[in-house]
């Protein structure tokens, strides 16, 4: 299966924080959700994907090409959707089209106007009058209008209401139907990915915890609930993290078979959500 993005052993150091030894593959034709808490390293990783930051070490390739010799060719094939306005606020969409269009060999005016109509965006109103949701739609329309093969979205739903977030997920599903596009979707709102993600990459404190299909995540992780009397130093080894309460314990496991062998019918096993996994893996990177 072809990888659109490949990061190999990528490290970027800052004062007090670093993204360390990232090995991340984004598969062509699928939606990859990039999850992690605020400050985990999502935006730094994306900036290295887009050559806005250069790694201190490691290799970054998009479409099998490196930025050193193929920067223009790579950027022709990428569309970027940010969580806010990246254009001069006094411009309207017609102005932006006139500025942005000539920068892309495959810019398609007819497609641009099609998306403007579909997204119900005004052409002649200044971007500063747009709501946050409208600004995000405008960025998406521009990305799609030059036939971007890879759409990178950095926290696009942050600050949006639940109804608009749902509409966006429906829209992304529509644009993925033909199988020609790949979406890399960074978010800390994990519920946004439940309906559209094919793969999940989870970053925590600058380290990639896992990069798995959504099916494998569901198969590998589970919540386990039971009585406190079941816990001891040996049985706890079946869990990544345990939360105790007066009524019993709730724990995350990445080894469901071991839990079944140890506890049998004495515990309740439930599917873990992405939010559950993020919560319980916090501080337990070494167990993964």
TrEMBL record:
<dbReference type="InterPro" id="IPR003593">
    <property type="entry name" value="AAA+_ATPase"/>
</dbReference>
<protein>
    <submittedName>
        <fullName>ABC transporter ATP-binding protein</fullName>
    </submittedName>
</protein>
<dbReference type="GO" id="GO:0005524">
    <property type="term" value="F:ATP binding"/>
</dbReference>
<keyword id="KW-0547">Nucleotide-binding</keyword>
<dbReference type="InterPro" id="IPR027417">
    <property type="entry name" value="P-loop_NTPase"/>
</dbReference>
<dbReference type="InterPro" id="IPR051782">
    <property type="entry name" value="ABC_Transporter_VariousFunc"/>
</dbReference>
<keyword id="KW-0067">ATP-binding</keyword>
<dbReference type="Pfam" id="PF00005">
    <property type="entry name" value="ABC_tran"/>
</dbReference>
<dbReference type="InterPro" id="IPR003439">
    <property type="entry name" value="ABC_transporter-like_ATP-bd"/>
</dbReference>
<feature type="domain" description="ABC transporter">
    <location>
        <begin position="5"/>
        <end position="230"/>
    </location>
</feature>
<dbReference type="InterPro" id="IPR017871">
    <property type="entry name" value="ABC_transporter-like_CS"/>
</dbReference>
<keyword id="KW-0813">Transport</keyword>
């Amino acid at each position: 299966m072809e990888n659109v993005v490949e990061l190999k052993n990528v490290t970027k150091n800052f004062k007090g924080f670093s993204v360390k030894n990232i090995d991340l593959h984004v598969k062509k034709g699928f939606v990859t959700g990039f999850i992690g808490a605020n400050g985990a390293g999502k935006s730094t990783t994306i900036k290295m994907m887009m050559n806005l930051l250069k790694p201190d070490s490691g290799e970054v390739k998009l479409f099998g090409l490196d930025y050193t010799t193929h920067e223009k060719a790579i950027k022709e094939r990428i569309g970027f959707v940010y969580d806010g306005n990246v254009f001069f606020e006094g411009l309207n969409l017609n102005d932006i089209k006139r500025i942005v269009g000539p920068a892309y060999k495959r810019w398609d005016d007819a497609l641009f106007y099609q998306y403007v109509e579909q997204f119900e965006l005004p052409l002649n109103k200044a971007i500063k009058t747009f709501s946050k949701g409208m600004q995000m739609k405008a960025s998406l329309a521009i990305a799609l209008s030059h036939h971007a093969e890879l759409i990178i979205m950095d926290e696009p739903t942050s600050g949006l209401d639940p109804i608009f977030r749902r509409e966006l997920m429906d829209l992304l599903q529509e644009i993925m139907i033909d199988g020609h596009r790949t979406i890399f979707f960074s978010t800390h709102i994990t519920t946004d990915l439940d309906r559209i993600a094919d793969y999940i990459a989870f970053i925590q404190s600058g380290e990639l915890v896992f990069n798995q299909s959504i099916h494998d995540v569901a198969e590998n992780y589970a919540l386990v609930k039971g009585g406190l009397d079941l816990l001891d130093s040996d049985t706890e080894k079946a869990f990544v993290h345990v939360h105790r309460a007066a009524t019993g314990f709730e724990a995350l496991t990445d080894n469901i078979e071991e839990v079944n062998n140890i506890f049998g019918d004495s515990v309740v096993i439930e599917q873990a959500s992405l939010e559950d996994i993020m919560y319980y893996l916090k501080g337990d990177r070494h167990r993964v």
